[in-house]
């Protein structure tokens, strides 16, 4: 193993101590002390490796290195925040790999005689997870102009703390020097797959060419409070029973399609008044449907609508669905996918085009600039779980691939081809 | 309407202003500022009407009046605390009716030449509802020796506040002068029915002769955290889906029996980690089964056990049930029921023997001393809801009945007959 490889694994282990959980994972939701500590550590890392650290108004943390004064940036990164009781790799692996890739490429260009086409910047996007502050991908949404900065900063967590207040607890304030979208030409990101197609097919790396389609809903079930013991069953308008029927309907819907064609879930819910002897008057929950086929998604939504009418009738509740976020089957730029493939082949890695089911910051960036998105295998596809794991050799191969992609992007390969 | 009746309704309306909600109900969970304010108002009421106010270590609030020095008490009362967003009548009506009944009977005996067999005490039991601090009927459980005082005081709410801390915010400290169980000979309580048998049969008042049987469980569903989008459906171990199957199974169970023979509910649940993009790893919830027939309850529990095995298998989760509280079909003392009937007949009220499905403080007291439990009609049986309502004429009839029962208890009618 090279010195760089050893150092990368050591740095990753050190970084994983922030917000470490007894179960071997991390818990560093956006803007918490554990997130701040990780950011501080990463800022120190950037400074030690010749990057200039800056933070923008949305809390995105950058490390820039100037190789060609005035040129736009190749931006490379991911996120350091996590879900509650999450794994060490989701996001954090991609940030550290980006930092290593940029440091290496900057060193190579610094030693050479030819200036690269671009400057380099590493990024740690703020609040990709969206568990403490909804929605997810907040920092990259503000960066790409999809979400107003004011909305992001005013978002509150369950305890009424705003994003603005949470960010104020960090080690560094915005100083207007962070890169903006106008100065970014290209973006690259690497992430663990969070699925098991690469592992099952024994493929070294994945080149993401497309996102699954997704429709996310806010579900409101309105019933009526009553006594859990005394109220006759036929008099009840039990919002929790209505919610349970929606949860089971959403799940059973997946059996109507070929395996792998529809993923559904309800994972967050709030019950009112949530008292042991009072039938719930209201349940709020988030429902999530995803598919690699837009027709399947449309048919699933239509089927679900019917079942929700039945659920409302059975439970004597009113059930309303509000579409909060949706996207179709969106492709990454073919030239970027091709650049990823060529990079893998150059390194002798087996590769496959894969779709991403999960959203990533690159989902936002690809709508603004040519973007290359890479995956490394996840053991058993386990993610958002303390047991999330990617083998060291896979992690190192991914870092090497991201370095090659960054190298090619920096020297202008994508510009020379048709970038879109 | 008599002056007393008018005054009672005015006092009830005034009392209902504490913790009043926009929906016409009250929200005064045990030991909150709204509960403290109601208790303070009630203490002032007691003082103005010749009672001595005392509070015991468990937060039970008493108003005593001495008619026969050294004699034990006829204790009459209910509770002033409420569920979240609850109705005005549940508990509070019974406390005010008890105060009016005792004041009237004390006045009658004071004007007469013969001392009664007993002294009189009104009681407002602390935390009957159990929504903020579980379990319910806490104050009367400590009073009757069913729960250690230390356990009650150390109970915490969701924010980590203990009962002891919450009680310290009240207007009056315990001074050792409150009545204990040893000084109580008899107990009476009146409550709204929280069901609709009296209303449907057009009966003026109910004499409670028996409680439904109940079994309450703590349910734990253990799954595994994963990504809501990326995880294949067949890989999921979704605790919320497992919980939804339990909720629907519990509900569907009621259709296996004649209407009215089985009530089931799940009304409180906590989801971990409750994040929009993470499949739940654990759900905790309370499951409640009640029946007027112990055999039905036993059969229901057996059926539910089978369905829970299926639910665990379908959801690939582990589901554990822990019995937290149960009681059989428990009767109130026949002599007390008979005294209730005679009192109603004496007043010319139509009456019926009714079972209580809900637990009451009298459920605890009847195990310690002869107890008379009375019901007045509830419009549509609505309870634990801001729309809970009992008509003024029903409320006044109930107060009159409780006064007659208190009169008979105080003069020793139950002692002369066979009290058990």
How would you describe this protein?
Two copies of one chain form a homodimer. Chain A is of the alpha/beta class and 420 residues long. Chain A has two domains: 3-211 and 330-416, Zn peptidases (Aminopeptidase, 3-Layer(aba) Sandwich); 213-327, Alpha-Beta Plaits, CATH 3.30.70. Chain A has helices at residues 3-15, 33-48, 92-111, 138-143, 149-154, 163-168, 197-201, 239-253, 294-315, 334-347, 361-365, 392-411, 413-416, and strands at 52-55, 61-65, 73-78, 119-124, 184-192, 205-211, 213-222, 226-227, 263-272, 278-279, 282-291, 318-327, 351-356, 371-376. In chain A, the strands form three sheets. Chain A has an eight-stranded mixed sheet. In chain A, strand 3, helix 3 and strand 4 form a beta-alpha-beta unit. In chain A, helix 3 packs across helix 12. Chain A is globular and about 85 Å long. The interface between A and B is large, with 74 and 74 residues.
């Amino acid at each position: 193993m090279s010195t760089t490889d050893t150092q990368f694994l050591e740095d990753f282990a050190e970084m994983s101590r922030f917000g470490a959980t007894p179960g071997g994972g991390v818990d560093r939701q956006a803007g918490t002390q554990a997130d701040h500590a990780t950011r501080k550590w990463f800022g120190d890392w950037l400074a030690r490796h010749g990057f200039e650290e800056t933070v923008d108004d949305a809390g995105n943390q950058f490390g820039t290195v100037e190789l060609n004064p005035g040129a736009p940036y190749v931006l490379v990164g991911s996120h350091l925040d996590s879900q509650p009781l999450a794994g060490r790799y989701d996001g954090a692996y991609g940030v550290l790999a980006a930092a290593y890739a940029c440091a290496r490429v900057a060193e190579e260009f610094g030693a050479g005689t030819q200036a690269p086409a671009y400057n380099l910047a590493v990024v740690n996007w703020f609040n990709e997870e969206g568990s403490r502050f909804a929605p997810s991908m907040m920092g990259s949404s503000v960066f790409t102009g999809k979400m107003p900065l004011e909305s992001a900063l005013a978002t509150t967590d369950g305890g009424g703390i705003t994003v603005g207040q949470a960010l104020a607890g960090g080690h560094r304030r915005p100083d207007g020097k962070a890169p903006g979208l106008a100065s970014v030409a290209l973006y690259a990101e690497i992430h663990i797959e969070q699925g098991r197609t690469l592992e099952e097919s024994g493929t070294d790396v994945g080149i993401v060419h497309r996102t699954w389609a997704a429709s996310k809903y806010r579900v409101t079930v309105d019933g009526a409070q009553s006594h859990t013991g005394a109220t006759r069953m036929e008099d009840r308008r039990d919002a929790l029973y209505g919610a349970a029927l929606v949860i089971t309907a959403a799940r059973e819907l997946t059996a109507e399609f070929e395996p792998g064609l529809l993923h559904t879930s309800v994972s967050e819910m709030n019950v009112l008044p949530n008292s042991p002897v009072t039938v719930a008057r209201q349940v709020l929950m988030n429902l999530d449907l995803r598919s690699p086929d837009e027709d399947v998604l449309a048919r699933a939504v239509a089927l679900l609508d019917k079942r929700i009418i039945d659920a409302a009738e059975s439970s004597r509740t009113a059930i309303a669905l509000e579409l909060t976020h949706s996207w179709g089957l969106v492709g990454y730029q073919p030239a970027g996918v091709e650049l990823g493939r060529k990079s893998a082949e150059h390194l002798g890695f087996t590769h496959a085009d894969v779709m991403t089911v999960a959203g990533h910051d690159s989902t936002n960036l690809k709508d603004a600039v040519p973007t290359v998105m890479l995956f490394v295998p996840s053991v058993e596809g386990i993610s958002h779980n303390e047991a999330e794991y990617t083998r060291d050799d896979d992690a190192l191969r991914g870092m090497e691939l991201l370095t090659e992609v960054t190298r090619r992007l920096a020297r202008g390969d994508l510009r020379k081809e048709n970038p879109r």
